[in-house]
Design goal:
Number of helices: 3
Strand order of the largest sheet: 1-3-2
Mean pLDDT: 77
Distance between the termini: 53 Å
Radius of gyration: 16 Å
Oligomer: single chain
Helix content: 25-40%
Length: 93
């Protein structure tokens, strides 16, 4: 049963660990806009101690089947190459 959770869905895979919840939530939103479900996990004692996120990081998980596509979307977004609704060509002719 490698690569599958007990519910039959692909097991979650760590995409990246971020230093802040804001970054992780932003990336999860970008992935959602591309049709990829992302889970943000932060062990901050139930928001009692948000500073723990800085020490431990905030993790973003996607399904194993979406991992490579999510990595590419993240790479393109951080490189400034994310295509917008017009396909990335925002300059007037």
């Amino acid at each position: 049963m490698t690569g599958e959770s007990m519910s039959g869905h692909a097991a979650p895979a760590l995409l990246k660990t971020f230093s802040s919840r804001h970054e992780a939530d932003f990336v999860a939103g970008v992935l959602a806009s591309e049709g990829i479900r992302a889970i943000v996990f932060s062990d901050d004692c139930g928001s009692v101690d948000p500073a723990l996120s800085f020490a431990r990081g905030v993790e973003v998980y996607v399904s194993e089947e979406d991992l490579e596509r999510a990595r590419q979307i993240l790479e393109d977004a951080t490189a400034g190459n994310a295509a917008g609704p017009g396909g990335g060509d925002d300059e007037a002719p």
